[in-house]
Every structure is written in structure tokens, then in C-alpha cells.
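One such given next:

>
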Amino acid sequence: MPELVFFSGTMDCGKSTLALQIEHNRSARGLQGMIYTRNDRAGEGKLSSRLGLVTDSVEAGEGFDFYAHIVAHVSAGGRADYVIADEAQFLTAEQIDQLARIVDDLELDVFAFGITTDFRTRLFPGSQRLVELADRIEVLQVEALCWCGARATHNARTVGGQMVVEGAQVVVGDVNQPETVVGYEVLCRRHHRRRLTAAAARAAALSPDVLPVDPVSEPTA
């Protein structure tokens, strides 16, 4: 039976790499897929991985209709055996409904990849709808790590190396960016709550003690 599968994880955990691997495995067996993405780091109409792999895709903008696009493609003599939708967190709830309709009405597997929560730990609308509709949710097993070495569970937005918790939900960026620009960092829950990024931790380690301890007085005879 065809499925709507949501592959979820933090930034830097290999979602796009897995999307490209699924595309490779299926195309190697003679299947043809439709690949969609939105706001990819490599630019419009690209699906890319941080490992350096990249392939062409269809840019799914704000008013894009997945179901209508697939139907038009097939009606024009094209072939579609499955669908890959990367950066699915940026899609609208209505677009996720369209992906579900592709599964139910056209009987195609749909593989959606995305981040569950934003830099404020709030659900993205697209991810929320996927959680509500997906036949299966897979949390990626390649664990991204916080600077402290613990498993990273949250995405932090940084400006000048400092974590920020206000601003537009969607600001395109990437991990490991220069501290002078808007970037992202994956953190464990403890350090996300404390707003303690790698840069902030380094600064704290280099700072002098703010609460010096007085020497213990020797008892007098």
C-alpha cells in the first residue's frame, strides 16, 4: 500500500542525504520520481546535501499545487512512480493535504523530509500537518550533536554567535555559518533553554570568575 512517510529530525541530521539516497535507490531500479523542495541551501530548484550531493528539483512555492502538478505531468505523458518532498516544514497545511491526496487518489508513495520545530521550539505548520496525516513518522537515527556532546534535539537561530528567540519563523540559513551572519546551531534541550550556544560557552569559559571565593581563614589559637 502506498504511504505518506514523514522523515523528521533536527538540522544537520542527514534528512536531505536520505532523500537523495531514496531517489538513487529507486531510480536504479527503473522507477521515476518527482522531486520537490523549497528554500534549499543550494538555491531554487535544487535538492542538496551538506555532503556535497545535489540534484535538480521542482521549487514548490507558496501557491504551488502538488496534486495538480502531478496530474498535469502524467496527463502530458510523463511518469511518476513516487514523490519526494524535501524541506517540508516550509509547506502550508493545504500543501500537505495535497501530498496526502496524491497517496490516496493516485496511489503513489510520498516521502516528506523536514524539521519538526522552529528556533522557538514551535511546530512548523507543514510539520504539524504531517504529524496529523502521515501514515508513518520516522525519526532519523543519525544523531546531530550539541556542542556539549549530548544529542541535539532543538534548532537555535543565532546572530553574531548569540541565540535569538524572536523574529520571523522562516529565515533561510544553515549551520556552521560565520558568527557575523544569521545562522543556525543544533543544541540539546538544556542548552537551548539556557540559550547557551557554542560561542557563548567559549566566551563564558574565557571570562574571569564573577564570584571570587574568599580564602578560608585559619583558626586562631
User: Anything to note?
Assistant: Helices lie at 15-27, 66-75, 93-106, 125-133, 189-193, 198-206. The longest strand covers residues 109-114. The chain has two domains: 1-142, 143-203. The mean pLDDT is 85.
